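Worked example

This section walks through a single chain of length 131. The input is the sequence exactly as stored; nothing has been trimmed or padded.
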Amino acid sequence: MLDTIQTRAPKAKIVLMGYPKLLENNGQCIIGIGTEEAPWLNGLADILATEMQGAVSDAKSKYGTNAVFSDPRDEFDGKAICGDPETVHGIVLTGHLKADNRDAEWLPGRLICSTVPPRRAVASLLKNAGV
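Given that input, the structure is written out below as C-alpha cells.
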C-alpha cells in the first residue's frame, strides 16, 4: 500500500501513524474491563507499532518509498482511557444497544473517539516526523 501511495503521489512524504495504548490503570474506570483484558488491549498498540514500523522499513528498502513511522505511545502515555487527563475517550454508552445491529463501518468511530488535546499531540508527532 505504501508503494502505491508513493507511485500516485511521488513527492509526498508518507507518515504511517501508530496507535496509542487505549487504557490506563488497567481500564478500571470502564465496567467490564478487567486486569486480563486491559494488558491484552494495550499490547495491541505494541504489536501494531512493530508491524507498522516493519511495513515502513520494507517499503523504504524495496521501493524507495519516502515514508516514516510515527509512534504516538509516548505522547499519549498517561492520557488514555482512565488517564488524567483522559484524551482518548472510552466506550460511548449512549445508544450502545443499537450497536449490535449496525454494520462494522459504524462501530470504530462510535466506540472510541479522541478530543482536541490528541489533535495537538498528533500535530506534534507530525512535526517531529518532519511533515
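What to look for: The first strand starts at residue 14 and ends at 17.
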